[in-house]
What we know:
Elements: H1 2-8, H2 15-38, H3 41-44, H4 46-66, H5 73-99, H6 105-133, H7 136-157, H8 162-165
Helix pairs in contact: 1-2, 2-5, 4-5, 4-7, 6-7
Domain Major facilitator superfamily (MFS) profile: 1-171
Protein name: Major facilitator transporter
Transmembrane segments: 16-38, 45-66, 78-99, 111-130, 136-157
Amino acid sequence: xxxxxxxxxxxxxxxxxxxxxxxxxxxxxxxxxxxxxxxxxxxxxxxxxxxxxxxxxxxxxxxxxxxxxxxxxxxxxxxxxxxxxxxxxxxxxxxxxxxxxxxxxxxxxxxxxxxxxxxxxxxxxxxxxxxxxxxxxxxxxxxxxxxxxxxxxxxxxxxxxxxxxxxxxxx
Length: 171
């Protein structure tokens, strides 16, 4: 979405290089965050780590909505890498713990990956349509609102009891 904004602007920035920069920044952040999180799930727990990642997402989208300055890509993509690093490690581990002994761990992973894929494909379609009819700021604001709904759903419906009786190293 950031690259689409740059491509649509009359600026002299190469959209391809800009898109590459967005990927490089988020990946450079995601990798060390994922390593750090993998070693701290026992300490902080699934609920807190997933909540942290979910809280980052609306902030990221709101920041992207607040300005169209190309350099705002840097903090936006840092936040993207932070959330991706946390969720990329915690969610699969959480599914294993949640479904341990059921014989359905792979099915659970598949369902989550399917939902992530649907969301990843619907997001640019939705926001591209909104940006085309209104503005990129409006599109990013909608993404922020959707992310806030995820935060509220996790807060209201996720059970914190998972923290005390299920850890990745536990039996």
